[in-house]
Design a protein that fits this description.
Largest sheet of chain B: 6 strands, mixed
Strand content of chain A: under 5%
Helix content of chain B: 25-40%
Structural class of chain B: alpha/beta
CATH superfamily of one domain in chain B: P-loop containing nucleotide triphosphate hydrolases
Largest sheet of chain A: none
Helix content of chain A: over 70%
Order of helices and strands of chain A: HHHHHHHHHH
Oligomer: heterodimer
Shape of chain B: elongated
Number of helices of chain A: 10
Shape of chain A: globular
CATH class of one domain in chain B: Alpha Beta
Chain lengths: 256, 331
């Protein structure tokens, strides 16, 4: 029996793009940060709001940041497919552009979810087993899915318009660091946070995702999270449309 | 050789403009038949690759249209593309080993695992890629990568195969093996469209050839028709009973030059002279007259047909009007 085209493309994405070094860089770095940053800052920071310890604060943030890890992988696959003409090769075969795009976003999501699992496992000895309900788990996964769609769509839309590898990977790296560091992944935003920084942090969709995941961990999920989820869903829809637009206008030919 | 008159591809005033008024190809009209090997020739930038992209539905026509397996190009989708094989001019590869690339590509096309396994072995052997099966494609030489591209495309079944310069960078022996294989597949019903700059390759493999220049199709016909119609210079080999002395050779050369015809002496080897001539009959007549007058016996005169290269150069270098149709009987 032949698998559906999207499934075949997702399997191909994983088989063609996942190697030990990629896995080490993409998952090893955040895992390393949970262990080292969490342990070291735990000594300095006695408690952070409802989370309690700094490690317990950091873990949901790192889990939320996996949506960026997944999106970066999808962006990388797309870029390499363009660079090595696989996009053109695949489109000349029995696949629709929408299927290729759906497969990329599904790869983003699956990779992000694998990342979530790894971060949870790494955090287990440091922060213990979080007692979250099925609803809270659903909220976490839905948030990750929306965030992965948002960031995946954004990087695909950018990747479809830029022909220079240097420019694309520079934008991707800057975006990645900017989004992670100017968000609530590593630190909380309080009344003491300078107003400008606070404004930038709250303009970052990752902040809403990190806050929602954190609230699910601390059982403090509230109406603000619903609003945040709605905003994230709207943004994900926008970047998804941008990615479709970018695909429709995709020019074939060599990229450098 | 007539095989099958089923039309696989049809182009009707087909054109594509990257920007309004800037046409990459324009006014293409032709039909391709099942089992035919069709060659697209032209200088760099003539529009061959754009034509391939239009016919493989990678680009939508901006003018005219056409059909692929009887369906309008603009509305072709998965079902039609599933019957195509496309070897692009640009290298396409996945970041896994050569063997894994072949298997992965077969998987993408839904080829059953067992079939993919045996076919990958067949392709690795046919394209002499066995020793490098574990290497990554980018670690291969240019010629090996080209072999890999063709081998990978042949992992799945197809009815129409597009090859955009498939033999670039290949040595003569490998080229010959690949062409033999493709000719055999064509005999079994595969329709092949390929672009090349190696003209004797097209001469050998193609049932028909289309010559493009500046985005337009100048002519379509069998290699023999094109050579006969557009080839101007033929080779004439003249063998005398003995080697000509220097004054005799000079005299003959001066005589031919005086005639004002397009003659050139390519080679002088012992008692043999090899000419290129625009009017071979006139040259032969002159040589026969001269040798009779000098009492030198002629032992051999051989006139060979114009080469495809000569016809091609003549066609694309001259300012010509729109399409010059030949009989273009097809297969």
């Amino acid at each position: 029996m032949t698998l559906p085209p999207v499934v075949r493309l997702v399997v191909r994405n994983f088989r063609a793009s996942i190697d030990p070094i990629t896995l080490l860089v993409m998952f090893g770095q955040p895992a390393f940060l949970i262990v080292i940053l969490g342990t070291m800052f735990n000594q300095l920071i006695p408690s952070v709001g409802a989370s309690g310890s700094y490690v317990a604060f950091l873990v949901p943030g790192m889990i939320a940041s996996q949506m960026i890890t997944g999106a970066v992988l999808a962006g990388r696959i797309f870029w390499l497919d363009r660079r090595w003409s696989m996009v053109e090769q695949i489109f000349s075969g029995p696949f629709r552009r929408a299927e290729y795009l759906a497969a990329l976003l599904l790869t983003t999501l699956l990779f992000a979810l694998v990342g979530v699992g790894i971060m949870a496992l790494v955090a287990l000895p440091l922060a213990g087993l979080p007692r979250i309900s099925g609803v809270e788990l659903g909220i976490i996964l839905a948030t990750i899915a929306l965030g992965a769609t948002f960031f995946g769509g954004l990087l695909i839309a950018i990747g479809g318009r830029i022909r220079s590898a240097n420019l694309y990977f520079t934008i991707q790296s800057l975006l990645q660091y900017f989004l992670i560091f100017i968000s609530t992944v590593y630190y909380p935003v309080t009344a003491k946070t300078p107003l400008v920084l606070r404004a930038v942090v709250y303009a970052n969709p990752l902040t809403y995702a990190a806050n929602t995941v954190r609230d699910a961990f601390t059982h403090t999920f509230g109406p603000g999270d619903l609003t945040a989820g709605s905003v994230l869903a709207a943004l994900a829809a926008v970047t998804f449309c941008l990615a479709i637009l970018s695909f429709r206008r995709l020019e074939f030919g060599p990229v450098q | 050789m007539a095989r099958d008159r089923t039309v696989i591809v049809q182009a009707s005033n087909l054109g594509f403009a990257y920007r309004p008024g800037q046409f990459a190809v324009r006014g293409l009209n032709f039909e391709l038949y099942r089992g035919e090997v069709f060659g697209l020739l032209g200088r760099n930038g003539a529009g061959k690759t754009t034509t391939v992209r239009l016919l493989t539905t990678l680009l939508p026509p901006t003018e005219g249209g056409g059909t692929l397996f009887g369906k309008a190009l603009a509305s072709c989708g998965r079902a039609e593309r599933a019957r195509l094989g496309v070897v692009l001019q640009s290298e396409s590869l996945d970041f896994v080993s050569v063997e894994e690339n072949l298997r992965l590509y077969a998987f993408l096309w839904g080829v059953p695992r067992e079939v993919a396994k045996s076919r990958s072995e067949e392709m690795l052997e046919l394209f002499e890629l066995g020793p490098m099966r574990a290497r990554k494609p980018w670690a291969l030489s240019g010629g090996e990568r080209r072999r890999f591209q063709v081998a990978r495309e042949l992992m799945h079944d197809m009815e129409l195969l597009f090859l955009d310069e498939p033999t670039v960078g290949l040595d003569a022996l490998t080229r010959s093996r690949i062409l033999d294989y493709l000719a055999e597949r064509a005999r079994r019903g595969l329709t092949i469209v390929f672009t090349t700059h190696i003209l004797h390759e097209a001469d050998r493999l193609c049932d028909r050839i289309g010559v493009m220049r500046d985005g337009r199709l100048l002519t379509i016909g069998s290699p023999a028709e094109i050579k006969r119609t557009y080839g101007r210079l033929r080779s004439v080999e003249v063998g005398f009973e003995r080697e000509l002395a220097e004054p005799e050779a000079s005299e003959l050369g001066a005589l031919l030059a005086r005639e004002g015809e397009e003659y050139s002496l390519l080679e002088r080897r012992g008692d043999l002279l090899l000419f290129r001539a625009g009017n071979a009959e006139s040259l032969v007549a002159e040589v026969v007259r001269w040798s009779a007058g000098r009492g030198i016996e002629l032992e051999r005169i051989a006139v060979s047909e114009a080469t495809l290269e000569d016809a091609f150069v003549h066609l694309v270098s001259e300012a010509r009007g729109p399409t010059v149709p030949l009989a273009g009987e097809g297969p």
